[in-house]
Amino acid sequence: MELRQLRYFVAIVDHGSLSRAALVLHVAQPALTQQLRQLEEELGAQLLHRSAHGVLSTDAGKVFYEHAQAILKQVADARSAVTQSTTRPSGSVTLGLPHSISGALALPLLTAARTTYPEITLQLTEEISGNLIEQLKSGRLNLAVLFDDGQLGGFEATPLVEEDLMYICRTDSLSKPRSASIALAAALSNTLILPAQQHGVRPLIEAAAAGAGLALTKLIEINSIAILKSALLADMGATLLPLAPLRAEIDSGLLAATPIENPPIRRSVTLCASRNIPLTNAAAAISRLVRQVTEMLCANGAWPGARLRE
Questions:
Q1: Cα separation of 230 and 26, whole Å?
Q2: Same domain, 155 and 188
Q3: In a 10 Å sphere around its CB, with 0-12 CB exposed, 13-18 middle and 19+ buried, how is residue 305 labelled?
Q4: What CATH code is carried by the domain that includes residue 115?
Q5: Based on the domain organization, do 65 and 145 belong to the same domain?
Q6: Considering its fold, how many domains does the chain have in total?
Q7: Does residue 281 share a domain with residue 258?
Q8: Would I find DNA-binding among this entry's keywords (predicted)?
Q9: Which of these, 184, 171, 150, lies nearest to 256 by C-alpha position?
Q10: CA-to-CA distance for 201 and 242, rounded, in angstroms?
């Protein structure tokens, strides 16, 4: 198996056809077809379905595509690590952010990266936290912001912030608390709109409920922040989230946030890197920048509800 075969295969999948990939790669289509055939023979599996309208990945092809992307990225990172300067880092860095963090961190970080490290191309990807963990392990991400649930021992971790979860509902909802805070038991008695199990804040909420001898009984599961907002505004239920992802709607008065007590629920936000794949100079620079931007956002109140972790 050769690196060029991996590049060819990824290009074919990305462009959806052999002819378009051949044009982009500046390779004759018969040569591209031959390399693909050799790759499939070596793997003993068909990677692509071919038709008059283009190509689609088989199940085996989808699995191989993920690995091929990770391998090509690590090769590019290795090349960049050898050639780049420690004083003027350059190259590409891919950072993963959970949906509920990107609203607070993404734009300030992009702005700071362009100003501080103009020779670094920062690529941000927004995913549910479970997907980010797998991509960081495989090397498809250089860095990822994750929630510290005590299971991050396999990563190099830099603490960022701690956030309180709030009970959030439509301002005129009948389920809006009449007091300045709401007990966890009262919050859980209402219909809640939450991520699916093992994603985002859900494990924290499940653990807090179990610790208090409570259960989540009335649930709507939504993994998209945008859809979750729409459901809240339609008064389909309330949610338990930090302030940041719903800040615009709370500031505008469309949604109301109430602190949770007895007990409160907090999440710890951490910047993670693989212990097995060395960071390039560029990735190390972005790692430091994430911490610096986080400190700035906490200091000026631009990350609402967040407290810096040391």
A1: 46
A2: no
A3: buried
A4: 3.40.190.10
A5: no
A6: 3
A7: no
A8: yes
A9: 171
A10: 9
HSE-up of 105 (CA within 13 Å, CB side)?
Answer: 28
- Are 133 and 273 members of one domain? yes
**Do 171 and 239 have their domain in common?**
yes
Secondary structure letter of residue 238 according to DSSP: B
Q: Are 167 and 258 in contact (CB under 8 A)?
A: yes
> What is the pLDDT tens value at each position of the chain, 310 positions in all?
888 888 888 888 888 888 888 888 888 888 878 888 888 888 888 888 877 777 888 888 888 888 888 888 788 777 766 666 556 788 899 999 998 898 899 999 999 999 999 999 999 999 888 788 888 888 889 999 998 877 777 889 999 999 999 999 999 999 999 999 999 999 999 999 998 876 678 888 998 999 989 988 899 999 888 999 999 999 999 999 999 889 999 999 999 999 999 899 999 999 999 888 888 889 999 999 999 999 999 999 899 889 998 7
CA count, 13 A, side-chain hemisphere, 224: 4
Last residue of a domain, one of 72, 99, 132: 72
Task: Identify the domain containing residue 115 by its residue range.
Answer: 87-163+268-308
